[in-house]
Amino acid sequence: xxxxxxxxxxxxxxxxxxxxxxxxxxxxxxxxxxxxxxxxxxxxxxxxxxxxxxxxxxxxxxxxxxxxxxxxxxxxxxxxxxxxxxxxxxxxxxxxxxxxxxxxxxxxxxxxxxxxxxxxxxxxxxxxxxxxxxxxxxxxxxxxxxxxxxxxxxxxxxxxxxxxxxxxxxxxxxxxxxxxxxxxxxxxxxxxxxxxxxxxxxxxxxxxxxxxxxxxxxxxxxxxxxxxxxxxxxxxxxxxxxxxxxxxxxxxxxxxxxxxxxxxxxxxxxxxxxxxxxxxxxxxxxxxxxxxxxxxxxxxxxxxxxxxxxxxxxxxxxxxxxxxxxxxxxxxxxxxxxxxxxxxxxxxxxxxxxxxxxxxxxxxxxxxxxxxxxxxxxxxxxxxxxxxxxxxxxxxxxxxxxxxxxxxxxxxxxxxxxxxxxxxxx
Length: 426
Known about the structure:
About 50% of the residues are buried. The protein has one domain (about 55-275, about 300-425). The longest helix is centred in the middle third of the chain and has 34 residues, at about 260-295. The chain has 22 helices and no strands. Helix 6 runs antiparallel to helix 7, helix 7 runs parallel beside helix 20 (about 375-385) and helix 11 crosses helix 19. The protein is mostly helical.
């Protein structure tokens, strides 16, 4: 285990990609222990041989279609009409649009890219400091991993063997809580720092703009209703819903909005294939890494250590959160889920913690990892759009991280927020 984790730390230090680092660390230990090398491809194939995993490339493809086909633009316009009239409203638009976009894309980084590419320049033009604008879009992008349908929820359900539909239901209230807390934070900062001046409009003008924006985005808003409604009503599985999202997004973008052209299809497929390949390679090698941990009885030893340390579920949740926060700083969310869920989920059950509630705690925690250096993917996406260095947005991000950690503690210690909707459905 020392060799496994030291080699992993060395690979991370020299900036080896996460998937490759997990694979090479596992390969070194397998070779030292005399394990047959044939186990590597067999375990990788076994981890990917899943119908449920098909949802990942299709939701990623749906997100790219929405970004290129004018759907995200119309959602931003609608959000701008709803909250853009208040001071700090454009920052609130970034969060609100992320919340809506999250119900279709399932990906945190895709949400950051779709929203940030439009709103970071718009926020800067309206007087927001560029660093704050980038930090806002990076932080709100994490809602893509919390609000269903979420790729991380699909992975957790698959690994922990719990209902993905119940996880989707459980994610709504925590996602709304996180979104509203970010909106309030942005509005307060805008007032304190005196940026984003607003132009007052009459109620009749606002209503006219709202009706126009709602009509323009109506087909886009139908998309999450079809996807989530179909899942919860039992018409189709999450995997089938991902395919429906692609087909519906393509029809709306190509036929009705007419913003998606034939020349755009190949680049969209190419970007989606690369994104999907990165995630699925991480899943494959993380599974091998997890297999080595299991054969070394690490879950059993860790479980014994924690149960000897405490029998209090409150303390266990605190320790689990600390472990996940640190892990999220260095390992991408899906890899962390594949490695840690087999260890932590059974332990949570022994402490009497609802598996759906613990799943949401874990997903929210790892979503925060998307905005924590050094491996915060959302930070890199936002910095690339804003043409900033990663160190330049750390300070404004820290404020949002404080708010997100408070949200995490609320979600952790008020299980009702995660379990109420699933209990109604069941």
